[in-house]
Design goal:
alpha+beta, NADH Oxidase, 4-stranded antiparallel beta sheet, 2 domains, flavoprotein
Length: 223
């Protein structure tokens, strides 16, 4: 891949971005304990939902946050289908494992998080400073597959954290038939489904005790 060459305008944009990054960290060195508890430490995955709607405007706000999360070479392969209507839920129902049917049908929204296997065709827009980037993926299906899945999954993770930051609860799940979902929602496209995540306001009466986690020394190594 050729080394990028930057115009004077691009160099100025880079300097501006660097200054903004410094200012961001200076103004917000860390989240407080309440924020950390809300988005991950004390947050719970939900199985049941209150009868409280999630607006389309909130979903658009959610995506505006998610799209800014880092992906390798700014590939941005994730594609999101927000299942909101009764008709769409019935289509998704056909793809679900039995234990997940009630969770999805009762949720205001369930997102199908997928990834575009032809993401690299958009690299002239998303990675424009390096014209050779697209060629790295063309005729390299293994690299395409791993990059799409890895970064699409990352973006799905960003969606879950961002949803909690906006006051929503989440219910991620993988108990569904991916091929059936692909046939139903992505037929004729280059998008493949990854996992589902219900969004809404969780019914705390339907959660269970928190399951254990590993301690640092059990799974982490300092070298």
């Amino acid at each position: 891949m050729n080394k990028p060459e930057f115009s004077a305008q691009q160099l100025q944009a880079i300097k501006t971005a660097q200054l903004e990054a410094d200012q961001l960290k200076a103004g917000h060195p860390t989240l407080n304990d309440n924020d950390l508890d809300l988005i991950i430490r004390e947050a719970r995955s939900h199985n049941g939902w209150l009868n409280k709607p999630v607006s389309d405007d909130l979903l658009k706000q959610l995506y505006e946050i998610v799209k800014m999360g880092s992906t390798s070479m700014n590939t941005c392969p994730a594609r999101f289908v927000f299942i909101r209507t009764d008709e769409a839920k019935q289509r998704l129902k056909k793809c679900l494992a039995p234990l997940n049917v009630d969770k999805v049908l009762s949720a205001p929204v369930t997102v199908i998080i997928g990834h575009d296997m032809e993401f690299y065709k958009h690299m002239p827009k998303l990675f424009a400073h390096n014209p050779g980037a697209q060629a790295l993926f063309e005729n390299n299906p293994n690299m395409v597959s791993s990059t799409a899945f890895r970064n699409g999954t990352l973006q799905g993770g960003y969606l879950m954290i961002a949803a909690r930051a906006l006051g929503l609860d989440i219910g991620p799940m993988s108990g569904f038939n991916n091929q059936a979902a692909d046939d139903e929602f992505f037929s004729g496209s280059s998008v493949k489904s990854n996992f589902l995540c219900s969004l809404g306001y969780g019914d705390t009466k339907k959660i269970f005790q928190r399951l254990p986690r590993f301690e640092f020394d059990e799974v982490c190594t300092l070298l």
